[in-house]
Specification:
This protein has 16 helices and 22 strands. It is of the alpha+beta class and about 475 residues long. It is globular, with a radius of gyration of 26 Å.
């Protein structure tokens, strides 16, 4: 006979399933959700703080205000106009756009550089607004919660499952939070709806998919925009939108484009990685603003983030990272680190390339098992840098020499060419006569190839411009000594 508490749990799951199904005003479909709107907004607010801290906002007040105002106008035409809609431009070169629950929407300066009109930007923002109005994220989260509830019920039925419950729950977060094929199609449809309500030319949405397809192809499947990491692929989505636009009444197949005014707003936009925030020259990292250099172990994968520079070994069993310590002296930073619970080590004062430092070998126990490493706290330019190198304990001996050499490479940056490097930027040019893209590149030389100029301007390499056309170019120089 089945225990009463098990029947009660099953009844609870069934009750929640039916009670949490409501009709979504944007899609007209019944939708499962265990998360209230107030919870959704609070989640978005909390995640927004993390996004801003990790990626940073692009430091252009006028551009931020423009995107906020455009996004707010579009969101006001949606089925959830009362949300605290927030639109931000992130200081990130990756071509990307995404949304958080509660009305927090982000576009990167990377995607802005490739867009060709306000109507195109409206289609991007409209798509992301669609994810919010359709409550795709919270629906996925609710599905995850239901799956976890079902797993808990399963544990009641079969206690031997308890040992694997935690592992299963961890995997569910990845499985359920990724947008589905239907989610993406639905957001495309809603984005088309909102840009049309805003009076924009709906044909511009297909141009965005063509641009994204071109950028993705040029990057060889490398840093594919997260916006396109789900299915269907941009080519299929472009064809589908083109069919929808063609089926509209003739008087609905056009609208505002705002190409020239939009491009003028991009004049001076930082393009690509900003070397002022640090750049790699092979395995060497140079930071002009903070005036230091550091050599990571050769062959390791490196990443320059807002709050840390990180390298990971090829087998992903060792890490070297550089962060800024909160303390004002190496001694204070070392005391805090080595006094942490579960930490064993004995730091000592020394000099690293003429800089005051405190270093020490440490051993610690983590959730993933015991690790061993070196911690160095180095004073430079009124700051204290924490250089942390560690590996799982069984592999430490294989990395000891390489990471010691890396830690000892921290030094002042004195190379004037590296110290004075500046980012590349977009410049908007109005042509005084007709010319081909090749002639444009010759008249306005810069670091961008013909193919890159074609992608930026959404034309073919053999395109011929007319007099009066507004065209993007890239100004600046290549990084000193940087590998291609």
């Amino acid at each position: 006979m089945r225990p009463a508490y098990t029947l009660g749990a099953l009844l609870l799951a069934t009750t929640l399933l039916f009670a949490a199904c409501v009709r979504n005003p944007a899609t007209g479909q019944r939708q499962f959700s265990l998360i209230s709107e107030a919870q959704e907004i609070q989640m978005g607010r909390e995640y927004d703080a993390q996004i801003v801290a990790s990626l940073g906002l692009y430091p252009d007040t006028a551009l931020q205000r423009y995107v906020q105002e455009l996004g707010s106008r579009l969101a006001a035409t949606s089925e959830r106009p009362h949300l605290p809609w927030t639109f931000r431009v992130l200081d990130d070169p990756v071509v990307n756009a995404f949304a958080l629950p509660g009305g927090y929407i982000y576009v990167t300066r990377g995607i802005l550089a490739y867009l060709g009109s306000e109507a195109e930007l409206a289609s991007v923002l409209g798509h992301e607004i669609g994810h919010v109005t359709a409550r795709h994220s919270v629906s996925r989260m609710s599905t995850q919660q239901l799956a976890q509830l079902g797993l808990a019920v399963g544990v009641l039925l079969r206690p031997e499952l308890e040992s694997v419950a935690g592992l299963a729950n961890a995997g569910l977060s990845v499985l359920f939070l990724k947008y589905s094929r239907d989610d993406e199609r639905q957001s495309d449809d809603l984005g088309l709806r909102y840009m049309r309500r805003g009076g924009y030319d709906p044909r511009e949405m297909a141009d965005v998919f063509a641009m994204l397809e071109s950028v993705s192809s040029a990057e060889g499947g490398g840093r594919v925009p997260e916006w396109l990491s789900t299915h269907p692929d941009p080519g299929n989505r472009r064809d589908r939108i083109e069919r929808q636009v063609a089926a509209l009444p003739p008087d609905s197949q056009s609208g505002r484009v705002e190409r020239e005014s939009f491009l003028r707003r991009l004049n001076g936009l930082v393009f690509g990685d900003n070397p002022r925030e640090g750049f790699f020259r092979g395995n060497e990292f140079l930071h002009p603003e903070l005036a230091f250099r550091f050599s990571f172990p050769a062959g390791w994968s490196t990443s320059n983030q807002k709050s840390a520079v990180v390298a990971v070994s090829p087998n992903q069993d060792a890490v070297v990272q550089i962060t800024l310590a909160e303390e004002s002296t190496p001694e204070a930073a070392a005391r805090r680190f080595f006094s942490a619970q579960g930490m064993a080590g004995s730091p000592r004062s020394q000099r690293i390339n003429g800089l005051d430092a405190v270093t020490g070998i440490f051993a610690a126990t983590t959730q993933s098992g015991p690790v061993r490493g070196i911690a160095a706290f180095i004073a430079h330019g009124g700051r204290v840098y924490n250089v942390l190198a560690y590996a799982i304990e069984s592999r430490w001996s294989a990395y000891d020499a390489a990471v010691r050499q890396a830690v000892g490479s921290f030094a002042r940056l004195t190379d004037q060419a590296a110290l004075s490097v500046q980012p590349q930027r977009l410049e908007i040019v109005t042509l005084d006569r007709p010319m081909t893209l090749q002639e444009f590149a010759q008249r306005y030389p810069g670091p961008a190839s013909i193919d890159l100029l074609a992608r930026l301007n959404q034309v073919e390499p053999g395109h011929r411009f007319n007099a009066g056309d507004v065209v993007k170019r890239v100004t600046g120089t290549a990084l000193p000594g940087a590998s291609e």
